[in-house]
Specification:
Blueprint (H helix, E strand, L loop, with lengths): L6 E5 L9 E8 L2 E9 L12 E5 H7 L10 E6 L13 E3 L3 E5 L14 E8 L1
Antiparallel strand pairs: 1-2, 2-3, 3-8, 4-7, 5-8, 6-7
Length: 126
């Protein structure tokens, strides 16, 4: 006989610039616990270089010690001017454990396309 273990995760979350924290409710086998989560501020390390744009968690931790939680659960990116990252047309990778990396080499050879300037923020859980 299989024992059914059910974890219900309810996230009250609206992704807007004005939302800085919300509540996470986890229900597991009849007991409920809650914790809060919050977005960090946006970080922008530098302007894109000859190789691309490197908005990495390790660099931010070195440059801003203590500002970012140990294990972010999500990452959000915008262009430096505030537009969504997706309108850049750039190919980039993004994860909460790494941050954002955009390589000029991945933008299409011979097309003269370079990475735009991104900024990122991280979602942390208390």
């Amino acid at each position: 006989m299989w024992k059914l273990s059910l974890t219900l995760l309810v996230v009250f979350f609206i992704m807007t610039k004005n939302v800085s924290s919300k509540t996470l409710l986890q229900v597991h086998e009849g007991s409920a616990t809650s914790c809060s989560f919050y977005w960090t501020r946006f970080y922008n390390r530098d302007s894109p270089t000859m190789t691309g744009d490197w908005e990495t968690l390790n660099n931010f931790r070195r440059e801003y010690p203590g500002e970012i939680c140990e294990k972010p659960v999500a990452v959000d990116a915008l262009l430096l001017d505030g537009r969504p990252a997706t309108v850049s047309g750039n190919v980039f990778t993004m994860s909460p454990s790494v941050g954002l990396i955009c390589l000029n080499a991945n933008q299409g050879k011979g097309k003269g396309i370079h990475c735009m300037d991104f900024k990122v923020r991280f979602l942390c859980v208390n």
